[in-house]
Amino acid sequence: MSAERAAATYRRAFGEDPAVVASAPGRVNLIGEHTDYNGGDVLPMALSLRTSVAVGPSTDALSHAVSEQSPRVGAFSPTGPSRSSAWWDYVAGTMLALGTAGVAPRPLRIAVASDVPSGAGLSSSAALEVATAFALNAWSGGGLDARTLARVAHRAETEFVGVPCGIMDQYVSSLAREGHALLVACDREEATLVPMAATVLIFDTRTPRSLRTSAFAQRRHECEIALRAIQRNEPAVRWLSRASEEQVRRATMDEIVRKRALHVVRETARVAACVRTLRETGRLAGDSMYASHASLRDDYQCSTPELDWFVDRAQETRGVTGARLTGAGWGGCAIAAGAPGPLRQLADSAMEPFATQYRRRPRFWMSAASDGARVDVLRENLVGGATAMTLNP
Ligand code: ADP
Ligand code: MG
Fold first, then answer.
1. Distance 152 CA to ligand 2 centre (A)
2. 121 CB under 6 A from ligand 1?
3. For residues 113-142, b (16+ Cβ closer than 10 Å) or e, as one string?
């Protein structure tokens, strides 16, 4: 459990027990790719992999941060931290954003431990921000709800760290519930829990995502062009995701741009189909997942040979019902759905041939839909004094 490791790391670094320990999960997006910045729907779930942060008071005017996974120790001003490009920017930025939500900044000590792999596309950054936000909120009396804390964490990532991401990662890390996926309508920033009984295999191709920044910016640009073309006929359409296939077909645009737009509107429809199937059966709609992958590969053109290789192999594995790339693409992870036995068999049997063909050792994880952020230990809070309470022991 990362909560115990965070407390142990805290004790080793600072010589006493933390006042509070909170944790938040990484996530994977089940379906709804490249729909978020087009105002559409996404369907992530929280992973069983979590990041924990242990927090207590500092003995000087600065905040001090350590992480199990980094030899670098951070020291920063609690009221006016400057961006350092170091890992503790996620912590410092969350403290700063919490300040504007009414949680008074104060010098603290923080220790981090995590099972979420960093930089794999499973949103270790949101897990770190959200766990920090939950810990500090609990410590200062617990006045803010999970949705507000998700927004605080999102502000840390976009405004302080400087990553222009949507709300999905912080929302699911804060609001998820065990046995549920989370449907997020990105235009309304509205989140709805959807029951889900499935286990998911996450396969990390470990391919560098070097093309991602430039190609991603180009796709966003193409989507803006498509939306403007549609709006010339239909001024009321505010988001590309909310346009119909018919509206995309009628508008005058370059054929490449039309392919991007068709991916976005069809992917939005696939999210809706997947939600319907989940509500009826608790299972993931495998055909929608395969169709999503084909569309990302052929129309959005953001797959790679490694991701295609994995999805093809999933399709040939009996008992595996669906697979697709997840995250923005151009490398990173793919997921597969089905019964746990066949999923494990797919992962195990893919390792060697993949490593031989692509000269890279992949990694995999299995996860059911897990709980969002929680306070694991609260020994004292600054409003009520000592509470000696252990939650979720
Ligand atoms: P992802 O969110 O996909 O894992 P990001 O690049 O957005 O990838 O975030 C990864 C960064 O978050 C790391 O480089 C590090 O700065 C920070 N980070 C995440 N988890 C931890 C941790 N447990 N300890 C220290 N830093 C962490
Ligand atoms: Mg991230």
1. 15
2. yes
3. bbbbbbebbbbbbbbbbbbbbbbbbbbbee
Which ligand 1 atom sits closest to the C-alpha of 157?
7
Angle subtended by helix axes 212-233 and 255-281, to nearest 10 = 90
Atom 17, ligand 1: which residue's CA is nearest? 87
Q: Is 299 a catalytic residue?
A: no
Domain 200-367: give its CATH superfamily.
GHMP kinase, C-terminal domain (3.30.70.890)
Q: Whose CA is nearest to atom 12 of ligand 1?
A: 125
Does the C-beta of 118 come closer than 6 Å to ligand 1?
yes
Predicted local confidence at residue 214, as pLDDT: 87
| Domain range annotation of the chain | 2-197+370-380, 200-367
Query: Which residues sit opposite 336 in a β-bridge?
Result: 201, 323
**Is 0.85 topped by the overall pTM?**
yes
Among residues 169, 204, 299, 376, the one annotated as catalytic is: 169
Q: How far is the CA of 169 from the centre of ligand 1 (A)?
A: 13
Fold exhibited by the domain 2-197+370-380: Ribosomal Protein S5; domain 2 (3.30.230)
CA distance 259 to 105: 48
Is there a common fold for 2-197+370-380 and 200-367?
Answer: no
Q: Which helix (H) or strand (E) holds 290?
A: helix 286-298
pLDDT tens digits for 122-154? 999 999 999 999 999 999 988 999 999 999 999
Q: Which ligand sits nearest to residue 166's alpha carbon?
A: 2
Residue 14 Cα distances to 10, 54, 77, angstroms: 6, 11, 18
**Contact assessment for residue 54 and residue 147, using Cβ atoms and an 8 Å cutoff:** no
